[in-house]
Amino acid sequence: MKYSILTIAISIISIINANAQKINFMTFNIRYNTEKDGINKWDNRKDRAAEMVKFYEADFCGMQEALIGQINDLQERLPDYEHFGLGRDDGKEKGEFSPIFYNKTRFKLLKQETFWLSETPEKPSKGWDANLPRVVTWGYFKDLKSKTKFYVFNTHYDHIGKVARAESSKLVLKKIKEIAGGENVILMGDFNATPTEEPIKIIMGQLTESSELSQTPHFGPESSFNGFESKEQDNRRIDYVFVNNPKLKVFKHATLTNTWAGLFASDHHPVMAVISLGKK
């Protein structure tokens, strides 16, 4: 009888620990604030965008195309979260950010930086044949429950420059190795490239796309870009969550397609992966 009780107790503790280690990672291009979007302008979407983060209990949300006003709007609506990042135009608040929002009640930020996707990554700059400056924002975190430490990188590749996208992947991989060494890394973002294109192939040479490790089949459409249209876009899977450790447990992977009376939170669907970050 004692053995049975002990066995049950150990099983319960194991389940609790497993659940405690599950972390929800979301990448979400929120679409920059522009009046030309009409009914889909930011003022009509900001509550929906915040609701997506809250309802799906994202522990980390790597955003793209976020202007400072949008970041402030979301921070106001997400009191359990903190954020960090820099504007890509001046390294301060000008231009789009690739910020990382994180659950401050569970995670402690130990270090954070932003670098540019260019030949001079340490300063605001535009690289190769890119149309615009592009950045990577990263943070080093400690899970206050499990005490595990890990890195989260978030980025948005150029939408025009083919050379820039390929070179960006090479630079990101180099930086991950320099910054994180052998520790666990989550890389997420809008890569403006489909799985068969060179930038993703370069990344996949060293990292693993989280859907490939998912214990349950991918949920939702393959394409993550919606263009504010209800019809699924063909071959527009451009938002990803990668891991550098193929031994990590990925429980779920999804493209989240929620709408409000046919209206969207953004012209991209958030992509989410539920991952357990144990030691490598």
Account of the 3D structure:
It is a single chain. The chain is an alpha+beta fold and 280 residues long. The chain is globular. α2 (46-55) packs across α3 (68-77) and α4 (162-180) runs parallel beside α5 (198-204). It has five helices and twelve strands. It has helices at residues 2-20, 46-55, 68-77, 162-180, 198-204, and strands spanning 22-29, 60-64, 81-84, 100-103, 107-116, 135-143, 149-156, 185-190, 208-209, 239-243, 249-255, 271-276. Residues 6-16 have low confidence and may be disordered. The protein is 23% helix and 26% strand. It has a six-stranded mixed β-sheet with strand order 3-4-2-1-12-11. It has a six-stranded mixed β-sheet with strand order 5-6-7-8-10-9, covered by helices on one side. β7 (149-156), α4 (162-180) and β8 (185-190) form a beta-alpha-beta unit. It has one domain: Deoxyribonuclease I, Chain A (4-Layer Sandwich).
In short:
The protein is built from five helices and twelve strands.
Just name the CATH architecture.
Answer: 4-Layer Sandwich
Average the pLDDT over all residues and give the rounded result. 93
Separate helix tally: 5
Shape: globular
Question: What is the rounded distance between the termini?
Answer: 37 Å
Topology diagram in text:
Layout: H1 2-20, E1 22-29, H2 46-55, E2 60-64, H3 68-77, E3 81-84, E4 100-103, E5 107-116, E6 135-143, E7 149-156, H4 162-180, E8 185-190, H5 198-204, E9 208-209, E10 239-243, E11 249-255, E12 271-276
Parallel strand pairs: 1-2, 7-8
Antiparallel strand pairs: 1-12, 2-4, 3-4, 5-6, 6-7, 8-10, 9-10, 11-12
Helix pairs in contact: 2-3, 4-5
